[in-house]
Amino acid sequence: MASAKKFLDVVKNHADRIYIIHYSSQSLYDAEAGALSPRITSVVVRHYTTAQTRSFATHIVAEYLGVAWDDIDSRYDDIERELLTQFYDFARDRRENYWVHWNMRNITFGFEHLEHRFRVLTKKEPPSIPVEVRHNLNDILKSRYGADYAADPRMPSLMDLNGPRVQGFLTGKEESDAFKAKEFIRMNASTISKVGFFSFVISSMVSGKLKTASRGLLNFVDRLLESRNARLLAIFAAFMGVVVGAIQLVLWF
After folding, report:
1. Which tens digits make up the pLDDT trace of 145-154?
2. Which end of the chain has fewer CB atoms within 10 angstroms, the N or the C?
3. Do 177 and 222 sit in the same domain of this protein?
């Protein structure tokens, strides 16, 4: 499991090198598009410190290629090939940075799935993102707050704990239905909302303001430090430290 302490050190010292990634795809159980592995419909990357977000999405690429809406079904291969080519062109020179993701760890859903689809469609090797720089946010949260930090499914549960569900969010079933309806804009909007939420989780974890369902000591301390009384107590303690220091200095001389 990823170490929360190690990751927080990365955020503290190399925040400008963090990229947050998520993607949407055809459901594993959908066969309408004729692909043996699920098609990629969008990949979204967000730079943590600037919040600049890049979308590599079916509807954007179809427009770029001049593919009419009614022709998307027959041109899926061309569109997905260009989508993944654009993504890997973007990622190539950023591979050695830090890539934060949510459970993207195998061929079913993960970096390996993106790589596989690229190989299938281009017959080339992708510029792979090294395993060593991939940070699974779900594992980091488990490491810091315990496995009970949110109920399953953890992503929407954590959203609910920290405010209203982010606008545009779709569940896996809803994304599958959106793919069947060719609602690629909705799928991309959902992916954008998720990387935005991951960024919020990181910054809230750093500041100690992330709300979780955990009952551990660390979570209790984080909640305690959010209170106004705790902040006032900290200010008072700092003031008294200055006063005591001044008295000691006078007595010394």
Report:
1. 999 999 999 9
2. C
3. no
